[in-house]
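Known limitations

Files may contain more than one protein. Parsers should not assume a single record per file. Below, a two-record file is shown to illustrate correct handling: read the sequence, read the token line, then continue until end of file.
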Amino acid sequence: FCSEMLPACPAVLLQHLCVWVSLFVFVYFSYLDMFLERFLLSADEHFMPGFRVIYYVFVDDLAKLRRISVRLSDRGMLREVAVERQRRWQDNSMSRMKLIKELIETRVKNEADYIFCFDVDQHFSGRFGTEALGDSVALLHAWFYRRPRFLYTYETNPLSTAYVQSRGDFYYHAAVFGGTWQSVRRLTEACHRGILQDKQRKVEARWHDESHLNKYFWLHKPTKILSPEYCWDPAIGWRTDIRIFRLQWVKKQYGASRQVV
């Protein structure tokens, strides 16, 4: 069968075809204590219901992770991935592109058909199902989807590989992205390459890996774009066109996530 046709198939057919989905989440510093348990339990309830999901938790403290007792349903498998904490929070953020690419190449390509990557400081509150699957999946940023394009915060430094010499079309949020493992590997490989080139030039994109992700999606259009209901910030308030909140931001704790080693 053709994997590109899977998202259009009824869920029962996808289950018959034994489609596997991997969820990647990165946890540093005290975010593990603050957000991980709620994130995983809500994902177990709402993320790809009825399907087998492998949860890859990239964490800088395996001992602390093992002390957290998260009881997932039979359809979920939790796997630990030890990562080295970087000195700056910006480097923790940007290093995930390299880490995702490497894990896909060494392991995940033999285990899963689709991959979704998430920030941990959010929680699922509604169905996030097979309708979200696609070859290359991007998410409209909740704070930008109704704003004029000239307000989009693309990278403006022409020395950066993330530079977008255009007003673009959409502004995407790096808190959620995904697709087939082949597509996610191409995306993360390109973003990682751009980040390395920027370091050689001694420049850093304004929004780090999110800037590089937006440059990639400007050049390589996603095949599926998710509405902000798939990652909504309650601080925005009520919107008539957003009636279901499938994934919601948790109040940011930058003091905890941006500690200096």
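...continuing to the second record:
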Amino acid sequence: MPFQIWGLFRLCGFFSGCDASVLLEGPNTERRARTNTGLHGFDAIDAAKRAVENACPGVVSAADVLQFAARDAVVLAGGYGWHVPAGRRDGTVSIMEEALNLPAPSMTVSQLIDVFGRKGLSPSQMVVLSGAHTIGKAPCVTFDDRVQTTPVDPTLAPSFATFLKGQCPYAAIQSTSVDMDSTAHTFDSQYFKDIIAGRGLLTSDQSLLYDSRTSGGVYANNGAAFYRNFAKAMVKMSQIEVLTGLDGEIRRQFDQVNSH
């Protein structure tokens, strides 16, 4: 369950901000976008929101519940915790097309720096936050550009390329997924170790090693420093385009806009 909740949180900030819009149910919401079909963990967020709503109705937003759940998911998976600034309000709009703002697995470093930069995040913070790929899986189709070519991507370690070809023998497979690092159920710095060894899964992962703007960050987070750096970057990311004051609302139900 920790990595399922974490998958939900990784979307924070790249759509309309950290306003829990990804939780909203509906036919044309972010939740229904093709890029989000693999999201899980909604039941856990629902249970947490119901619990706080029973204890203090109308006080804690779904956006804050998601923030606390993401922090706890990281801790349960082996990472460090961090202080979560609270007080966010929930968005009332969720648009499927905005899911296209999520960084794509085939992005270059320049594209990643631009996408994260537009959200106020530095290249070094982008590298640290990319370490979120230490948990979870990715479908074969997300790295077709690396293994379904002749020859395969030369930055892949030969043994890893052989393994990926075995898991994904032809292009466009969406039903099979591969671990995003070699300890994919544990929150650790293995993601960066794998990149250094030529075992980064996605183009957007492995390319971090070969750009002078990001390679130093890969090596700098190849150990215990990652946990501290990640916690700091998460606080920064959690403050992207939040709703406060009279903006938005405090949802009574985590996946539905209030009916007044």
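Parsers that stop after the first record will miss the second one. For reference, the second record is described as follows. The radius of gyration is 18 Å.
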